[in-house]
């Protein structure tokens, strides 16, 4: 199970990559392996506000539909349009081509609460 | 695999072969273009299959033998109440007075059918503890939506149109948040506590002046009775919201406890589940909605009423009604079946239904708890949820267990639902199965649990005895082939 060191993680199995006050968000390798083959991805629109712990989209696998819970709050500045047509990216490259949204972070304190790779690895090994 | 049986009827066509001789035309021929613009008139013959009667019989008989229904085997699909549908229902639904009437006939000529519907409404009022019932909604989710639209109209009539939040527990059926969204509400999800029941503190935290309603199934999707239901209803009523009962699990409490006595303001029932309408083939269903007095003005119109002279009448004079939700008045044939069921069972029979449904589920749960994890280990109602997490550690997923059950001739239970159980296996036996059937199914489940230890590949590669093995569900979802195209060679892997 891949858990890159440079990323931050949420309990709901999202990863967050911080760059210049902006955060890019996707779901983890563990999440995609639990969900199975992803067949549909639903994302918010650019300009939408997303709030920590509230759904901002969903992923549908052959097994189930799961909501995507925002790991932190912010305003959506970019979404991965290509992912909408290629949901299999989530399985193939969860930390790469399957990035979901980029947001402008509105509450830095929430970023502090995210887990590092070691803490997240410990969580999924439970 | 016998590929011949997989061909489509269009693929066995032979030009000129016929299975039926039409009578000679006995009315003057008519040029359609006199009536319909020529660009809308088909210029070439429809490419209907050209086959003999025997070809047709063999084709569809072969397909029908691949069906699995409750008439062919055990079907413990959790939360779907796949009980046996007594055949007397079919006999009654085919009575000429029910089968050969038309909904546009004058009311005076169909008083008997209207009386049946009225009596069905009255029975459902009594069973649910509601003040009035409409039979219009065509299925469960339709009933949910109808009730939510009435709640919306109620709040608007009271000058509280700002109430836009519907609260739904995380264990709810997916239709609940979907219906709330379609009805124009925003859904708030509340979490279940450690005991699998709604967390009262979480409910108190989310209710407020914007609360329109709480949607709840009781027993919930784990098969557990929400024992704090009165307090939950009080919390929601305390802030001016309504409490809605999803009747999906009524089979667990019917004639024992009534939603109306638990504090619910409205309820939908699935007559195609609890009241033995046939289902599983996509319908038709029937999802009546019952309401307490203060919601009556908003019922969809027409409302079927009994007049003082004893005749029955469709009342359209309902100025506050949310309007019609279905052409005519519900799925009449299904309602005839439900009425027949209620009358053949009687009050004591319906009580026994609940007792056996609950007894059967608890019996199976106790037989299986050693072999599978049981995350919410307490007395269940009509269904229970196992977890395949122990088997998952051995490399066998719940999906594999479900597929392996096919080898034993069973329809698998509901899997991966509810979402708050890891690798969930949700089993609802219903009251109509014998102890022998329950035991045989438990034996199969126990054998599969042993196979995951001794020979996991046998389970991982299942099914072995079916016409086709694992289907490519991913490809089916990502690139579905939804219609036959003549020139297209569709390869079946």
Automatic annotation (TrEMBL), chain A:
Positions where N6-lipoyllysine occurs in the chain: 63
Domain Lipoyl-binding: residue ranges: 22-104
Tree of life domain: Bacteria
Keyword terms of this UniProt record: Lipoyl
Cofactor(s) in the UniProt record: (R)-lipoate
Record text on cofactor binding: Binds 1 lipoyl cofactor covalently.
Pfam annotation, one family: GCV_H
Assigned protein family: Belongs to the GcvH family.
The protein's role, per its UniProt record: Is also involved in protein lipoylation via its role as an octanoyl/lipoyl carrier protein intermediate. The glycine cleavage system catalyzes the degradation of glycine. The H protein shuttles the methylamine group of glycine from the P protein to the T protein.
Subunit-structure text: The glycine cleavage system is composed of four proteins: P, T, L and H.
Protein name as catalogued: Glycine cleavage system H protein
Gene source species: Solibacillus merdavium
Taxonomic placement: Bacteria, Bacillati, Bacillota, Bacilli, Bacillales
Gene name of this polypeptide: gcvH
From TrEMBL, chain B:
Domain Glycine dehydrogenase C-terminal: 354-453
InterPro entries found in the cross-reference section: GcvPB (IPR023012), GDC-P_C (IPR049316), GDC-P_N (IPR049315), GDC_P (IPR020581), PyrdxlP-dep_Trfase (IPR015424), PyrdxlP-dep_Trfase_major (IPR015421), PyrdxlP-dep_Trfase_small (IPR015422)
GO molecular function: glycine dehydrogenase (decarboxylating) activity
UniProt keyword list: Oxidoreductase, Pyridoxal phosphate
The enzyme's E.C. designation: 1.4.4.2
Keyword Oxidoreductase recorded: yes
Reaction equations catalysed: N(6)-[(R)-lipoyl]-L-lysyl-[glycine-cleavage complex H protein] + glycine + H(+) = N(6)-[(R)-S(8)-aminomethyldihydrolipoyl]-L-lysyl-[glycine-cleavage complex H protein] + CO2
Domain Glycine cleavage system P-protein N-terminal stretches: 33-308
Cofactor(s) needed for function: pyridoxal 5'-phosphate
Cleaved signal peptide residues: none
Class of the enzyme per the UniProt entry, highest EC level: oxidoreductase
SUPFAM superfamilies assigned to the protein according to its UniProt record, in alphabetical order: PLP-dependent transferases
Domain of life, per lineage: Bacteria
NCBIfam families membership: PRK04366.1
Family: Belongs to the GcvP family. C-terminal subunit subfamily.
HAMAP family in the record: GcvPB
Name the record gives this protein: Probable glycine dehydrogenase (decarboxylating) subunit 2
The organism of origin for this protein: Solibacillus merdavium
């Amino acid at each position: 199970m891949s858990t890159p060191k440079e990323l931050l993680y949420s309990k709901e199995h999202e990863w967050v990559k911080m760059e210049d006050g902006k955060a890019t968000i996707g779901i983890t390798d563990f999440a995609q392996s639990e969900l199975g083959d992803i067949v549909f991805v639903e994302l918010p629109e650019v300009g939408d506000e997303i709030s920590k712990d509230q759904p901002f989209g969903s992923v549908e696998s052959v097994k189930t539909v799961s909501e995507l819970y925002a790991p932190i709050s912010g305003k959506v500045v970019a979404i991965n349009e290509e992912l909408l047509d290629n949901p299999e990216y989530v399985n193939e490259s969860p930390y790469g081509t399957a990035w979901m949204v980029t947001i402008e972070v509105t509450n830095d304190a929430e970023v502090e609460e995210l887990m590092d790779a070691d803490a997240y690895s410990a969580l999924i090994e439970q | 695999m016998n590929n011949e049986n997989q061909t489509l009827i269009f693929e066995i066509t032979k030009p000129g072969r016929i299975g039926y001789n039409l009578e000679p035309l006995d009315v003057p021929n008519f040029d359609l273009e006199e009536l319909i613009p020529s660009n809308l008139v088909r210029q070439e013959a429809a490419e209907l299959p050209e086959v003999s009667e025997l070809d047709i019989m063999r084709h569809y008989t072969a397909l029908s033998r691949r069906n699995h229904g409750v008439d062919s085997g055990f079907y413990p699909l959790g939360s779907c109440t796949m009980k046996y549908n007594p055949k007397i229902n079919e006999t009654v639904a085919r009575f000429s007075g029910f089968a050969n009437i038309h909904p546009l006939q004058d009311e005076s000529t169909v008083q008997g059918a209207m009386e049946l519907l009225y009596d069905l409404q009255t029975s459902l009022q009594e069973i649910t503890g509601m003040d009035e019932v409409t039979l219009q909604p065509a299925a469960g989710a339709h009933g949910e939506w109808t009730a939510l639209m009435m709640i919306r109209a109620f709040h608007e009539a009271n000058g509280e149109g700002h109430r836009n939040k519907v609260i739904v527990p995380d264990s709810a059926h997916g239709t609940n948040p979907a219906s709330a969204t379609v009805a124009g509400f925003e859904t708030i999800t509340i979490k279940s506590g450690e005991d699998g029941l709604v967390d009262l503190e979480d409910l108190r935290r989310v209710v407020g002046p914007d609360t329109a309603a709480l949607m709840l199934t009781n027993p919930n999707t784990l098969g557990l009775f929400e024992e704090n239901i009165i307090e939950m209803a009080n919390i929601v009523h305390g802030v001016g919201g309504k409490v809605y009962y999803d009747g999906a699990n009524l089979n667990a409490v019917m004639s024992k406890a009534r939603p109306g006595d638990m504090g619910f303001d409205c309820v939908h029932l699935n007559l195609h589940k609890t009241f033995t309408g046939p289902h599983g083939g996509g319908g038709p269903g029937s999802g009546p909605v019952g309401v307490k007095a203060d919601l009556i003005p908003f019922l969809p119109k027409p409302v079927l009423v009994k007049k003082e002279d004893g005749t029955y009448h469709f009342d359209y004079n309902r100025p506050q009604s949310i309007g019609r939700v279905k052409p005519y008045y519900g799925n009449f044939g299904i309602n005839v079946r439900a009425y027949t069921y209620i009358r053949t069972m009687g009050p004591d029979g319906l009580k026994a239904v609940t007792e056996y449904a609950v007894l059967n589920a608890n019996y199976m749960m106790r037989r299986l708890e050693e072999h599978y994890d049981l995350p919410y280990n307490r007395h269940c109602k009509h269904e229970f949820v196992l977890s395949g997490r122990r088997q998952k550690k051995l490399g066998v997923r719940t999906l594999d267990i479900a597929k392996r059950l096919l080898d034993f001739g069973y329809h698998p239970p509901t899997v991966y639902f509810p979402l708050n159980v890891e690798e969930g296996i949700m089993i609802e036996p219903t009251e109509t199965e014998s102890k022998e059937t329950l035991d045989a199914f438990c034996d199969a489940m126990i054998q599969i649990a042993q196979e995951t230890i001794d020979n996991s590949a046998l389970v991982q590669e299942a099914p072995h005895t079916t016409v086709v093995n694992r289907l490519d569900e991913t490809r089916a979802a990502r690139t579905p082939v939804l219609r036959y195209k003549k020139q297209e060679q569709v390869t079946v892997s």
